[in-house]
């Protein structure tokens, strides 16, 4: 663990108390209201040395630590994407800090475009696997043998089962799907979407994959849920824009929050 992560974690424990965190949640575009549901203390990323800038609109760059459904959570209100800094490891320090705070699980959320007619705008998808279509990796430059992280079952089967049970209990449809990571920030072309659909992707987005790789590297169990904010490029007449993503994310976000709450109740 880096010295910086230990220092930042100590600073956070001074502010919020030393009770260990159980689950870290990373919030995607337009999903920030989940942080407001937590009964806890918020710290702006700007006050956490080395934390990324996370300057994309629709994100709220603060860390909230407290209780949600009786579980101690650390909610990362903003993520830093590769396309902001050119660094695929932009979320390494926050995830190291999460581990240092005692968490064993990271759940990432994101907004994504769908390639499947049965997953329209407003639906949610549980990631069962991913395709890293960016050619990037957050562990490039990591000098130790720990960099050779196995990625089979990267999306923890037991957590996925619990998430699916929570969705079922809440009467919410949440299919499994494969998420493809494009670097962004431009959206994909229709030809790129046709290509990844042929290769087995169900949804596409600009985040999450580096965080899941980093989580597995750090020994955190990982899971992720997408909120579908649009059909991917070329698959419908609807426009695709960041404004659209922010406006549409809240539709699926209500479902996502119910699933997360149901999951946390099984941990409490
Ligand atoms: N592509 C990439 N990222 C996204 C999309 C998309 O269609 N929708 C929301 N985030």
Structure, explained:
With about 270 residues, the chain is α/β, with parallel strands linked by helices. The chain contains 8 helices and 9 strands. It has helices at about 5-15, 35, 80-85, 90-100, 155-170, 190-200, 210-215, 240-265; strands at about 25, 40-45, 60-70, 70-75, 105-115, 125-130, 175-180, 205, 220-230. β6 (about 125-130), α5 and β7 (about 175-180) form a beta-alpha-beta unit. The mean pLDDT is about 95. Bound molecules: hypoxanthine. Hypoxanthine binds near residues 187, 188, 229, 232 and 245.
Secondary structure: helix percent: 25-40%
Backbone CA Rg: 17 Å
Strand count: 9
Strand order of the largest sheet: 5-8-7-6-9
Main sheet summary = 5 strands, mixed, barrel
Distance between the termini: 28 Å
Total helical segments: 8
The shape, in one word, is globular
Strand content: 15-25%
Structural class: alpha/beta
Mean pLDDT: 94
Q: How are helices and strands ordered from N to C? A: HEHEEEHHEEHEHEHEH
Bound compounds: hypoxanthine
* Low-pLDDT residue intervals, each spanning 5 or more residues: none
